[in-house]
Amino acid sequence: MPEWFGAPRSARRLLLALGLGLAALTATGLSSAAIATSHTGDAKLHPFTINSPNFREDRPLPVSAEANAPAFGCNGQNQAPALRWQNVPAGTMSFAFTMNDVDAPVAGGFHHWIVYNIPAAVHELAGHGQNPFSEGTNSAGTTAFFGPCPPPTGQVHHYIFTVYALSVAQVPGDHLTFEQLLQAIAPDVVGATSTIGTFRRPLDD
């Protein structure tokens, strides 16, 4: 388990939001120094808060969130949890959102849900997995919520829900991948917050 899971929640949220973004953006070829400057050069970066009525921080996601992916042994309802955020930075023009499984056995983790061009006046995702905002391409190759479906090993997987506050109203591009989205928003992030939900599938006999 990464060391930052033991950090205080307020610090951890900012570390999660930035750490995941920096790692992904560095992988795309941008230098870590350039990324850090774009985020912190004018000391504007501001943490805010996020929660869900469907799960508690560091606790299991609802069973209804499990993916409906029979080919992988998952037969859930693929119901996205609702998410709400508040105390956003002044000057926020829009939001972007990602959901990632950092324990997935694939390089960079598994990206379950990508949403952007969320207007500044909107402070929630309703939770049905279908939103009137721009949807990015997840690791399953679809442009929608793809619920948890970890291997049936009994291992607890950690799902990071991150909201980025942006100083621009629109992010150009259709169906952006996780890496493409983070590269596009890198100069415009003025705040970030994350929360963690967990999910596990029992060990197959």
Overview of the structural elements:
It is a single chain. The chain has helices spanning 9-27, 32-40, 178-185, and strands spanning 46-47, 49-51, 59-60, 68-69, 74-75, 83-86, 94-101, 110-119, 124-125, 134-135, 157-166, 189-199. With 205 residues, the protein is of the alpha+beta class. It has a single domain, classed as Phosphatidylethanolamine-binding Protein. The strands form three sheets. Strands 1, 3, 7, 8, 10, 11 and 12 form a seven-stranded mixed sheet that branches. The protein has a three-stranded antiparallel sheet with strand order 2-6-9, with no helix packed on it. Strands 4-5 form a two-stranded antiparallel sheet. Strand 7 and strand 8 form a beta hairpin.
In short:
This protein is α+β, with helices and mostly antiparallel strands and about 200 residues long.
Secondary structure blueprint with pairings:
Elements: H1 9-27, H2 32-40, E1 46-47, E2 49-51, E3 59-60, E4 68-69, E5 74-75, E6 83-86, E7 94-101, E8 110-119, E9 124-125, E10 134-135, E11 157-166, H3 178-185, E12 189-199
Parallel strand pairs: 1-12, 3-12
Antiparallel strand pairs: 2-6, 4-5, 6-9, 7-8, 7-11, 8-10, 11-12
Helix pairs in contact: 1-3
Strand content: 25-35%
> Which spans have pLDDT < 50 for at least 5 consecutive residues?
1-8, 10-15, 20-43
Report mean pLDDT, rounded to a whole number: 82
- Silhouette: globular
Span of the ends, CA to CA? 25 Å
Which architecture name does CATH use? Answer: Alpha-Beta Complex
Radius of gyration: 16 Å
CATH topology: Phosphatidylethanolamine-binding Protein
Series of secondary-structure elements, N-terminal to C-terminal: HHEEEEEEEEEEEHE
Number of distinct helices: 3
* β-strand number: 12
| Biggest β-sheet description | 7 strands, mixed
Count of structural domains: 1
CATH superfamily: PEBP-like
Q: Quick one: CATH class?
A: Alpha Beta
